Every structure is written in C-alpha cells, then in structure tokens.
Amino acid sequence: MKRLLSLALAAAMTLALIPAAHAASGVTTGSGVASGGKLVYVDMAGRTGDVVIGTDGLHTDTAASSMVTGSVAAVNGGFFNSYYSGAGNVFPSNCAEVYGALVRDGQVLHAGDANNVIGFTYDGKVAIDRVTIQTTAVISGKGTATVWGVNKLYNDSTGIMLMTDDLKLAYTVPASSKVFTIKDDKVVSVNGGGTYTTPAGCSVLIYNSGAVANVSQWNSLPAVGDTIRFAYNYTGTRTADQAMWDNMKTIVTGGRMLVQSKQNVTANSSYNSQYDSDPKQSNTSSSLRSFAAVMGDGRLLLGTASGTFPQIANDLIALGAVHAISLDGGASSMLYADGSGFLTPAGRELAVVLTIVPQDPNEKPYENPESGGSGSNAIDPGVADPHTPSSWAAADVEKARSLGLIPSWLTYGYKGPITRAEFAATVLQLFPACLGKSADTIRDEMGIYGDEFASYKFTDYDNYNVQLAAALGIVTGYEDGTFRPNNSITREQAAIMIQRAVKLLGTVTPTKNPTFTDAAKVSPWAAEGVQFVTSCGIMNGSNNAFNPQGTYTREQTYITMLNVYNAIKGS
C-alpha cells in the first residue's frame, strides 16, 4: 500500500513538473518549484527582453497591467524602495526609488558598479552573471571621464553623474558643482548647482566640485559646443560569455544569485555577500520570490514561488536550470503570460518590469564611441581618432589586449590619465592572465567571505573591483576611509599597487639597481614599491627621474601590465 501511495505521489509530482500547454507559440506554463511555484517557459527564438519603467519615468511606479502590454511573458524586475522618504533625499519623498543597474537599448538607464544581473542580447540570447557596468563620457578633444552613476546622485566631491530624460523627477545639485546640459551630443549650456529637471531630449552631466578641480588641471572641463558621447561597457565573470555582454540590449539587476553552471551558489559570497546582512534576503528567510533562469535546452524560465533561496535553487537545478537569479519578491512578485494573464498578480504597483517581446528586425545595436562606424554615437568621420595608442606604444598595447590584460571597457582614451579606480580594475586582470584563475578565486582561497569582504568597502565608492582589490591588499585608500576613485593615479601609487599584486602572483627577481635624482620626493609609504618596480624593470623613469607624483596614462599602464606579465612568466 505504501509503495502504491509513493508511486502515485511520484507520478503526481512528475505531472506537476511538466509544463502545461499555452496558447502563445513557444510559451508554456508549469510548476514544480518550492511551495505554490508558478512557471513560464519561453522559447526565445525571435524574441528578446525589454525593461519597462513607471509611466511617469524612472523612480515612479505603475499598475502592472499597463506594463505588460505587447509582451508574451513578464516578471517583476529589480528592487525598488516604495517607502522612499526622509530629510536630505535627492528625489521627492514617496517616489519608487529604483535600486541596481538597468540597461535599455544598450544604454545604462540607472546606476552602475557590479551587480547580479540578467541580460538579453539584441538577438535574444540570455545571460545571468555578476557583471561590472561602466559608463564613460567621451569628450571630444578632452579625454574621458568615468561616470559614477546614471540617474543616481552621489554626494562625494569627486563624483561625476549622468542624468537622462528617463528621470522626470527634480533633483538638487550642490552649488559648487558644474552642470552640463547635452542635446544631440553637444553641450548647450554650463551652469552651477541648483534644482534641475532634465529637459526632454537632453541629458545632464554633473561634475561635483572635486571632479571640477581634477579635470581643470588638464584643461579638460567640458564647454559649450563640445561633443560628449557615452560608452557603456558590461563585463561578466565568464570570459566565454563576453561576446554576449558586448551585444547587450537589456539588463536588469536581480538579487541573490541562485544557480551558476548548474551549481547552487546561494551561499557563495562572491555573488551574494551584500545580501547576507538583510534578514529578508538571507538564505534562511522563506517568502514569496520571483526568479529567472536559463535552462539547459536554451529556453528562458520565469517564475514565482514561496520558499528559501536554497530550496528554490535546488528545485530549479532539478528542472534543468544552468544559471538562475532571484528578483524582487514579496508584494512585488508578479508573473504574466500572454493568453493566461497574471499567474501571480502583483500586490502593489511596480517600478520595473522585465518583459519578453518580439525582436525588432530594424533595431540596430547601440554603438559605443570607440567603435567608430556611422552610428549616432560613433566618432565623427574625418577626425583623428583620439582613442588610438601612440605609435611607440601601439604594439605593446595590442599585445597586452590580446593577453587579456586590459579591461574590455578601457580600450580607448589611451593617451589620457588613468584614474585610481580604473588602475585597480586593470591590476585585477593580471590574475587570470598570469595564473589562469580570477582575482575572485584568489580571494576565496584566502578565505575572505561575507562580513569580512563587506568590510573592505570605501565610504565614497561602492564598486566591486575596488572592493576586491582592497580585500586582496592591493589598495588601501586614504586615512579618512575614502578611495577617491576619479583622482588620476600617481606613479608612486601605481608602483605600490603593482608591488602588492606581484606578491600574490609569484616571484620576480630584481635585476637592476637604478637611482633617481628625485628619489627624495618619493613618499615614505611608496619607497619600497618604487624600488621594487624599477629594479625589476616593470616601471622606469625618464631623464634619471622617476616623477613619483606625476600621473600615469592608460597606455603606460597597459605596457606596465605587460611588463608584469613577462616578469611573472619569465619571458
């Protein structure tokens, strides 16, 4: 009897796992995840993903019924703060403040930094990974500027922010800042701080006071008439998937990573340390969740279920998920399929919805400025490309690029100074190139997880690459707890970072004993690093001087990384 009962239960469970027929072609519904799980399977042939925000723009919420129009399937997207209020806020109280990065039509719609995300290429491929997102302003004849965030303000004096007309709310900029209004890629006005609303058809680039001071010394502050275009670069942890991230149309930030390469990673701090301190996002918390997965047969799975993250991850693996990510949950959970309606109705209005829509055969991928071509953001034809390495550096820069020593989002602006944040990210490229394993893997081997890893964040910059470099002991920041990411790195700062990195990479034996006429100008904390890199031939001086407080260009940095690689490999 017990055996018959168990067989009946097994049969019932098997039937529950089989997707039910659905009216729309290539879209089926099913169950089989945790408690009350509801699933929508989507064949992505001829389809892709899209981001829908509130009808009143970014940081506003809307009834889900008006956000799924024209889609074959939809799920609630990234997290948002439906209770935004309080003194000192930059947006009006009670707006639906969006968290995390959003990308629409290849352009960053919100935020930046590193996030657990789901992304969709223009041709419908789906990727789920932890991705670093970098926005860069490319200013004609004046170099580049790293943008801290999009439609998100930072109080740090060195912050640089981009506000687009997707944000219709007013925002307040400090009086000492500079505000550049851009229309049709041209700066049309320059103003000081105040309260602004981005005009329709325009974008606004904001330099806080410290950023103004930094770029003014290079005469690279934008002016009326200057051309400013924006480059958006997305870098995942899996090199094999980078071609997809280079062709991304849509990106939505999720929450706790559930599955990577068919493995339950809910407890993996490389993806999830930021969620461990939030009771609602802990692995032991059981609640209604939304999620998305890439299945072994190539289909996309969207779903909702009640349970813990480990439960949901294990059930998704059993169904054949290769990669999976959680999305916002609780009252925000929503699941929709065309023909079936709302399988899980949202309990509140939503700020972000991920929709699956037909591909537009006439849509062209967004072109970053450095890619050239004839796109709206391509470099002006007939103008010398400012992003080509100097002739003396070109061969070595290309060699460094081919070895993976240059971040994919930093392959331009070679002659300009490199920032502290950019240099830290570049140093991390040495680990996979020299050791065949990522800096994340080195950190795991050192046993730096959870709260300990979280403790390496700086007060002025929440960036995964910089945090990782700090955890590895490569960067330390300033005594006041800041990192000052947009400051140009000095040669002595570069030297000490390289020395610290080499200690993790292997053994390099000094072969020289150089002396410099300006040795007394080297800061005491940097003296050992300068001595190391110059005696090993990794960095050199000029005219018997090292110039410790001088800045470092990107092309110089990339040649230095090639020198480190050759020293480690013995070539």
Polypeptide structure, described:
The structure is a single chain. The chain is of the alpha+beta class and 571 residues long. It has 3 domains: 20-85 and 243-358, no CATH class; 141-226, no CATH class; 384-569, no CATH class. The chain is built from 14 helices and 28 strands. It has a 7-stranded antiparallel beta sheet, with helices on one face. Strands 7, 8, 9, 10, 11, 19 and 20 form a 7-stranded antiparallel beta sheet that branches. Strands 3-28-4-26-27 form a 5-stranded antiparallel beta sheet, with no helix packed on it. A hairpin with a 4-residue loop joins β9 (113-121) and β10. α7 packs parallel to α12 (491-505) and α12 packs across α13 (527-535). The N and C termini lie far apart (73 Å). The model is unreliable at 1-23 and 371-386 (pLDDT under 50).
Largest sheet: 7 strands, antiparallel
Give the number of DSSP strands: 28
C-alpha-based Rg, rounded: 25 Å
Looking at the structure, what is the overall shape? globular
Helix percent band = 10-25%
Spatial strand order of the main sheet: 1-2-24-23-25-21-22
Number of domains: 3
The number of helical segments is 14
Low-confidence stretches: 1-23, 371-386
Characterize this entry briefly:
The protein is α+β, with helices and mostly antiparallel strands. Helices cover 22% and strands 26% of the residues.
Using brief descriptors, characterize the structure shown.
22% helix; disordered N terminus; 26% strand; 3 domains; alpha+beta; seven-stranded antiparallel sheet
